[in-house]
Design goal:
By secondary structure, this protein is α+β, with helices and mostly antiparallel strands. It contains 18 helices and 10 strands. 71% of the residues lie in helices and 6% in strands.
């Protein structure tokens, strides 16, 4: 409960006139100390007394608050009781209305019927309890048999362990010089076999390295000799067509190209070398470098004949991009560009990859490995010869047999400068070569920039330098393979000698340790018997464990059925009790209604009493709160008066001679609780007159002006204590 009051105590504060004070200063001076001490004692006693009154008032207030809280709780409880009694009374009235003879007879009949149901449910519980008892007996028997089988299994396992230990001991005894020699022979023969295999592998490595050297040498020859030369008439016709792709210019270009006659020329011009017939992986970085440099040199030679000064480039980055693109948009999507139902270029894939690399891309595609004058090749068995021939054949085909619906677009992609097929942004073209899983060749033309870095890791187009590097590496590999073969051959000779030594040792000891061999044979027989017994015990254990589980499941099912029967019985009993209660209520309707009416009336009376008690307690609380406020005000005023007395005492005891001389020339102020109390002292001339009148009668122990001022302050202080203060604000009470 929060209460907030404002109390203002008003007193008339008189003006302390100093007349007579100066005249009596000398007589009063002697008694000043005693007076202030008495005043201080009085004010302090007043503070203690008023504080005690505050404490007593606070205690009374707390007691009154507790009484109000208790009374409120009683009212709430009584109100709840009235609500409950009202509901009970309504129910009793309804019950009275329903208590007809017909309803009582019907309810009694229902009780009889439900009693039959309860008896039946009780019988079912008894019968199911018997089933549970029988299942528990079966489960206990199964548990005993399973425990016995487990013990038998443990015994059999121990026998196996014992037989195993005996066999190990017999075999350890058999391990003699003879067995050691046999082991040594086996190890020597194994080492000799490994050494022989290593020699065979080393020889194969040497053969492969020699083939690589021959291939590298052939690449040097092929790269420098394979070129495609165009006639002046073809170049002129092609330029005319690209400048104006009219029907006439197309026919003239087709006439000059001579259709498929180039095939015979290819067979004659492509340099075939048996050393190139080595199986390679088209995606191998070294093979990629050879193919792209080979293709770019063929194209740049053609562009030079055409009169172009800008050349295409080749790089490892462009090759990696080409392989990634073909795998993602042709192999992974099963996109057959030339098959029976060929899909052509994957234009959506080209657009997506161009956006991914943020550059321009053009694609040329050729039959690659799928069509051959000398027969088809496969990706699994292709050779370097096949790959180079495919590149040469594809580029030549783009020049001489690209009419019809393509409108010489492949030739355009080779000879346009700054644009390809009318699309700009091809100012720095790098070529990447890749073969798809169907064997078709893809030539990806990228515009390389600093951003996409497709021109990074560029290959040297100096054919001799590139091919010579391949040849040097292949020769180094061959030298290393030959050195390894030599070491392996030496190791084989040493291993064969060790085999001969081991055979001699075994021959010298082949008749020893016969008895140990018999012991080993016996131990093995015993171990086999023990393992058979163990398997039999294991099978029995599993069977008994299965029976135990089944018995446990049956017991659990019986117990579940028993619990269900018990639940049914409990429900039937509850229904019976409900029906019996209904009969009792209907039979005793008059008594129940009378009791409910009496209880309701008593609850209403209790609520009335509790409400009255609450009102009385609230009145007492208001009185206690008022008394507490008055006591606190009195205590605050007592503290203020004590403070004023203390300040006056300090002024009297701490004055100096100079202060007493200026007593009549000013005013002295005291501050209490934020409000100034000022005593105006008589003028200095009046004080001088009184001083002269009494100068001959009193001892001269100090300045009389000071004494007059002091006495005036004492008088003012007493006045202040007597009248109280104006404007004091009572503190806020919170409870």
């Amino acid at each position: 409960m929060n209460k907030k009051k404002m109390i203002r105590l008003t007193a008339l504060v008189g003006v302390a006139t100093a007349t007579g004070v100066v005249a009596e200063a000398n007589q009063a001076h002697a008694a000043t100390t005693t007076t202030t001490e008495t005043t201080n004692q009085t004010t302090n006693a007043s503070v203690e007394s008023t504080q005690a009154a505050v404490d007593a008032a606070q205690s009374a207030f707390d007691t009154a608050q507790t009484s109000v809280d208790n009374a409120q709780a009683n009212v709430t409880s009584a109100s709840n009781n009235v609500t409950s009694a009202s509901a009970t009374l309504s129910s009793a009235i309804a019950n009275k209305e329903a208590a007809t003879s017909e309803n009582i007879a019907s309810a009694t009949s229902a009780v009889s019927s439900q009693a039959v149901v309860v008896a039946s449910a009780s019988q079912a519980v008894s019968e199911q309890a018997g089933v549970v008892s029988a299942a528990a007996s079966v489960q206990a028997s199964a548990q005993a048999e399973a425990t016995s089988a487990s013990a038998s299994l443990s015994s059999s396992s121990a026998n196996v362990a014992s037989a195993t230990s005996a066999l190990s001991a017999a075999e350890a005894a058999l391990t003699s010089d003879q067995s050691t020699a046999a082991n040594n022979l086996s190890a020597a023969e194994s080492a000799a076999s490994s050494a022989s295999a290593a020699v065979s592998s080393g020889q194969a490595a040497v053969d492969n390295a020699q083939a690589a050297v021959a291939s590298a040498q052939a690449i040097v020859d092929v790269q420098s000799s394979d070129v495609i030369n165009m006639s002046v008439a073809y170049i002129t016709a092609l330029k005319n067509y690209l400048a104006n792709p009219s029907s006439a210019n197309a026919a003239a270009l087709q006439e000059v190209a001579k259709g498929a006659d180039y095939v015979k020329e290819l067979q004659q011009k492509f340099k075939s070398d048996a050393s190139l017939d080595v199986v390679v992986d088209p995606s191998d970085p070294t093979v990629q470098e050879v193919l792209s440099v080979y293709a770019v040199n063929l194209i740049n030679h053609l562009r030079n004949q055409y009169g172009l000064t800008t050349a295409f480039g080749a790089s490892a980055n462009a090759n990696v991009a080409a392989i990634d693109f073909v795998k993602k948009y042709y192999d992974d999507e099963d996109w057959n560009i030339f098959g029976t139902n060929g899909k052509g270029h994957n234009k959506n894939g080209l657009d997506a990859y161009a956006n991914q690399l943020n550059t321009s891309i053009a694609e040329d595609a050729g039959s690659g490995l799928t069509t051959w004058v000398n027969g088809k090749a496969t990706m699994a068995t292709t050779t370097l010869h096949n790959l180079l021939y495919a590149v040469y054949s594809d580029i030549a085909t783009m020049l001489f047999d690209d009419g019809g619906t393509n409108n010489w677009s492949h030739a355009q992609s080779i000879f346009e400068d700054g644009t390809i097929l009318g699309t700009g942004g091809f100012n720095n073209v790098y070529l990447g070569v890749a073969f798809d899983k169907y064997g078709y060749a893809h030539y990806e033309l990228y515009n390389a920039t600093e951003g996409n870095q497709l021109g990074n890791n560029a290959y040297s187009l100096d054919v001799q330098t590139t091919a010579q590097t391949l040849l040097t590496n292949a020769q180094a590999t061959l030298a290393s393979a030959k050195a390894s073969l030599q070491r392996m051959t030496t190791n084989l000779m040493v291993a064969k000698a060790a085999v001969v030594t081991a055979q001699d040792q075994l021959a010298a000891l082949e008749n020893s340790s016969a008895s140990d061999l018999v012991a080993v044979t016996k131990a093995r027989t015993q171990l086999a018997s023990a393992e058979t017994s163990y398997q039999t015990a294991l099978a029995t254990y599993k069977q008994k464990e299965g029976a135990l589980k089944k018995a446990g499941d049956n017991l659990a099912a019986a117990q579940a059925s028993l619990e269900a029967a018990q639940a049914t019985l409990a429900t039937a009993k509850a229904k019976l009790a409900e029906l019996e209660e209904t009969v009792a209520n209907l039979t005793n309707a008059d008594q129940l209604l009378a009791a409910a009416q009496a209880a309701y009336e008593q609850a209403v009376a209790n609520l009335t009493t509790a409400t009255g008690n609450l009102g009385a307690a609230q009145v007492d609380l208001a009185k206690a709160e008022s008394q507490l406020a008055l006591a606190e005000d009195a205590a605050e005023q007592a503290k203020v008066r004590a403070a004023i007395a203390a300040q006056v005492d300090q002024q009297l005891n701490g004055s100096t001679a100079n202060d007493r001389q200026s007593a009549g020339q000013g005013a002295t102020s005291l501050k209490t609780n934020g409000r100034a109390l000022t005593a105006t002292v008589a003028t200095a001339s009046a004080a001088k007159q009184k001083q002269g009148a009494n100068q001959g009668r009193l001892p001269q122990t100090g300045n009389d002006d000071q004494e007059a001022s002091t006495m005036a302050l004492v008088g003012l202080g007493m006045l202040g204590m007597a009248t109280g203060l104006y404007g004091y604000k009572k503190k806020k009470l919170t409870k």
